[in-house]
Amino acid sequence: MEITEMKHLLGEFKKLPKIEHKPTYLEICKYPGSRFEQICSRLLAFYSDPKKPHGFGSLFINSLIECSGDEKLDSHSLQDVKVVTEDYADGNRIDLVIYNVSFAIGIENKIDAGLYNDLNSYKKRIDSYSDNNLKIILSLNRIDKKEKNAKKIIENGFINITYSDFLTNVKSKLGELAYHADQTYFTYLIDFMKTINKMTGENMPLEEHHNYFDNNFKLIENMLESFQQYKADLLNKQNEKLDRLKRRMEEESKRKWWIFGCHDFNIKVDKGKIGLEGWFLNKDKITFDEFAIFITYWDMDASSWQKYETQFLKSFPGKRFEVIHDNRSRKRMKFHHLSNYSEDDILTSLTECYKKIDEVVMTVQEEN
User: Fold this and answer.
1) What is the DSSP letter of 324?
2) CA 129 to chain centre
3) Residues 6+ apart with CB under 8 A from 118
4) Measured between alpha carbons, how far is 322 from 233 in angstroms, rounded to an integer?
5) For residues 349 and 292, what is the distance between their CA atoms, to the nearest angstrom?
6) Backbone phi, then psi, for 166, in 5-degree steps?
7) Is 143 helix (H, G, I), strand (E, B) or coil?
8) 59, 177 contact by CB (below 8 A)
9) Nearest residue to 126 via CA among 149, 150, 148, 159
10) DSSP notation for 125-136
């Protein structure tokens, strides 16, 4: 792959809008498959019931009626509304029915399942509530009229409303109601709307990213392969450098040294409780510009460590130990930070640090 192609790809990527990949609360709690669809149906039921404590009144019902374009229904007779989920319909169940004595709205909620339902039994059940009714397939994406199941939608008097159209209508009315609404349920509603919006694929910044990756799929794959090879080459180079240091320090100290996790060069003394660690400082890339050396203690009880810490602080005035928060009860002191160094510089500093540790250990052991 040519360098000019890589530069062009990166230039185009930088132009894309930034996306904050923060999951909604519903996404965090999301159940797999159809169970999430059931959760959405319960949320629709709650916000469609004017008597519930959300404070939005008949907002959801009004939006459904407006989206349907059905002039036979109006929102002037919304007294004593009842909302039923999983309503029985001749061996089947309709996701949601909203009704009172003068109208009925039946909703089949489609998040990710196909339209395999017996719409004829649903039609009969909704008609039994009222002749003045709406039959709705509420779906993430518009159902194509050429689809296999589109014919039965029309034959049974259903209409297809997308979540995008429905929630856009709801959102247009939120401003005037938000002040009087319960703020907890307002927050939940916004989270629900964000979740659905992300699922519809109509999130414009995300769509731009998807288009970019679709249009440049093979080029990006090639660039990633080149990048992975570049990283592997750098890691091999790092391992070679650490291995040379290891062999030279073993010759110098007559002790066994270790390379842990391909990056952490160390030795432990005093039964493995105190030791020296060193590694290349890689912040946002693999580089060999800086090398840091630390004195570390592991898994030592507080009273034992206090004796060592006192001696180390005497040996290194002005330095201090920092607690490392992990499951090994570690503390660490930075002994030396080398920049623009040679391999011999690192070796000299490692040797000095190692000898200091040995001296402190011997002093504490003699005092005991």
Assistant:
1) E
2) 44
3) 89, 90, 92
4) 33
5) 10
6) -65, -50
7) coil
8) yes
9) 159
10) HHHHH-SSEEEE
Residue 173 in 3-state DSSP?
A: helix
The Cα–Cα gap between 330 and 298 comes to 5
Structure-token match 């990949």, residue found: 21
Kindly state the tokens that stand for 299.
Answer: 């898994």
pTM above 0.85, yes or no: no
> Across the strands, what pairs with 94?
87
Find tokens 């609360």 and name the residue.
25
Report whether 181 contacts 175 (CB < 8 A). Answer: no
The partner residues of 108 in beta bridges, in order of sequence, read 137
SS3 at position 104 = strand
Here the tokens at position 275 are 């030791």
E strands of the chain, at which residues? 82-89, 92-99, 104-110, 133-139, 159-162, 258-260, 264-269, 274-280, 290-297, 322-324, 330-339
Q: In this structure, what token pair is assigned to residue 1?
A: 């792959």
Written as tens digits, the pLDDT of the chain (368 aa) is 567 777 777 777 777 666 666 777 787 776 555 588 888 999 999 999 999 999 999 999 999 999 998 777 665 566 789 999 999 988 889 999 999 988 899 999 988 777 778 889 999 999 999 989 999 999 988 887 777 777 888 889 999 999 999 999 999 988 878 778 899 999 999 999 988 888 876 555 566 767 777 788 888 888 888 888 888 888 888 888 888 988 998 888 888 888 887 667 777 766 667 888 888 887 667 778 888 888 887 766 767 777 888 888 888 777 776 765 555 566 777 778 888 888 899 888 888 888 888 888 888 888 76
On whether the CB atoms of residues 283 and 273 are closer than 8 A, the answer is no
Q: Could you write out the DSSP letters of every residue in 36-77?
A: HHHHHHHHHHHHH-TTSTTS-TTHHHHHHHHHHT-TT--SS-
Instruction: Report the distance separating Cα 357 and Cα 272, nearest Å.
Output: 12
What type of residue sits at position 299?
Answer: D
- Beta-ladder partners of 85: 96
Burial readout 155-176 (b: 16 or more C-beta within 10 A, e: otherwise): ebebebbbbbebbebbeeeeee
The DSSP bridge pattern shows strands 322-324 and 159-162 to be unpaired
197: closest CA among 60, 32, 41, 26?
A: 26
**Is residue 211 packed enough to be buried (19+ CB in 10 Å), middle (13-18) or exposed (0-12)?**
exposed
